[in-house]
Design a protein that fits this description.
The protein is an alpha+beta fold and about 230 residues long. The chain has 2 domains: about 160 residues, Alpha-Beta Complex (tt1808, chain A), CATH 3.90.1570; about 55 residues. Helix content is about 30%, strand content about 20%. The protein contains 3 helices and 10 strands, in the order αβββββαβββββα. It starts with about 20 loop residues before the first helix and ends in a 7-residue tail after the last helix.
């Protein structure tokens, strides 16, 4: 029996966890969250994490699930998978992978070949174990190595890549650093504390001003009682 394109199943999961370790998961969520924030006001920029991408209609065996992918020209919204022929045939332009300890070199080479073949413009690979950062940019039809990566600014995202003492650092075009949820929470708490301190300082200054005014009024009253007209 001939199978029609309508009957072909494109799985939305392979039954494997999104990450092999907490550190890999943390980096995936940090990068995705940063990209989400970067394009929160852009309706036609789709950001996804660990979503199956099928570039070829009728062949569900050709697929990858990038740790993070950014697609310009496609609307935000929920998807079970990214089937390119249903998305204006637009391939993800930017892809991030966070290497885990179980990722051997053959697996990573296959991912690079896949992204090069199916139209990715920028591919970034970070190894948190070795704190190694690599990148590729589409040049003359293929993904070519970016060298150096430190200080590199993504043409599509405008994001700057750095390597600090703690590893990868990503900076948005406005200079703000990508942070994970815990760091963001701590920053919000610090901002709240600073606002409270500023309010307390303002209240203290108001009270000091009132006390000074009261002292001045008492002194003026004492001088008048003594028959001395206070200077204005």
């Amino acid at each position: 029996m001939q199978v029609t394109t309508e009957q072909i199943i494109y799985p939305s999961s392979d039954g494997q966890p999104m990450a092999d370790s907490t550190i890999q998961y943390q980096w995936i969520t940090t990068i995705k969250g940063g990209c989400d924030a970067l394009f929160k006001d852009s309706e036609n920029v789709f950001v996804a994490g660990d979503l199956f991408w099928y570039p070829v209609e009728g062949n569900p065996n050709i697929c990858q699930a990038p740790d993070v992918m950014v697609v310009f020209g496609r609307p935000k919204g929920d998807r079970k998978s990214y089937r390119q022929w249903l998305e204006g045939n637009i391939a993800p332009q930017v892809v991030f992978e966070v290497r885990s300890e179980s990722d051997n070199q053959i697996k990573m080479d296959k991912k690079l070949a896949f992204y090069s073949r199916y139209g990715v413009e920028e591919y970034y690979l970070y190894d948190p174990q070795d704190r190694e950062l690599r990148g590729w940019l589409r040049t003359e039809g293929v993904l070519d190595v970016i060298d150096p990566m430190v200080g590199w600014v993504s043409p599509r995202l405008g994001v700057r890549f750095e390597l600090g003492n703690e590893g990868l650092e990503l900076y948005a075009p406005n200079g703000e650093k990508f942070v994970d949820y815990l760091d963001l929470y701590e920053l919000k708490e610090l901002e709240r504390e600073q606002k409270e301190l500023a309010q307390q300082q303002k209240e203290l200054e108001r009270e000091q001003k009132e006390l000074a005014q009261q002292r001045a009024e008492r002194l003026a009253a004492q001088l008048r009682a003594a028959g001395i007209e206070p200077e204005v």
